[in-house]
Amino acid sequence: MKTFVRLSLLALVVATLAFGLTRWLAPHSHADDDEMAWMKTEFHLTLAQTAAIEKLHDDYNPVCMEHCRLIRETRTRLTTLEAANQRTTPGYAAAQAEMTRLKGMCHDATQKHLEAVAAQMSPDEGRRFLDLTLPKLAGQSHDAPLDPR
């Protein structure tokens, strides 16, 4: 009987750890929920506004992730060329031009997304949202979506 209880407790611990790990590693993070909860409170969003903004975020997230992926790949290419002492090569110049193009594309797309989000809010809250978020675009790391907070 003692063995059964011990095995049951061990199974419970393993199951709890597995559940915790899958929640922690899942593609949908609690940060997304936290961000929406913050936005709902900070910008006094109605349920309809919250739902519309969540849809905008869900639709834009794959676009944003693709932009970040392309930028990271180009950053890696530049780093590799720098390590090989090839800063003066046409390949390096092309990679720099590609990086500039990708960052511009990301900036423009993110700005349009933020403006679309602001358009779902009341005019005053939308302006306040843009005043808070648009300045953060210049410092965007391209490692993850922009955090408006």
Q: Could you explain the architecture of this structure?
A:
By secondary structure, the chain is mostly helical. The chain has five helices and no strands. It has a single domain, classed as Four Helix Bundle (Hemerythrin (Met), subunit A) (Up-down Bundle), CATH 1.20.120.
Count of helical stretches: 5
How big a fraction of the residues is strand? under 5%
Give a quick account of the main beta sheet: strands, pairing sense, barrel closure: none
| CATH architecture descriptor | Up-down Bundle
Question: How would you concisely characterize the structure shown here?
Answer:
This protein is an all-alpha fold and 149 residues long.
Blueprint of the fold:
Blueprint: H1 2-25, H2 30-42, H3 47-83, H4 90-119, H5 123-133
Helix pairs in contact: 3-4, 4-5
Task: Pick out its properties.
flat, about 75% helix, Four Helix Bundle (Hemerythrin (Met), subunit A), mainly alpha
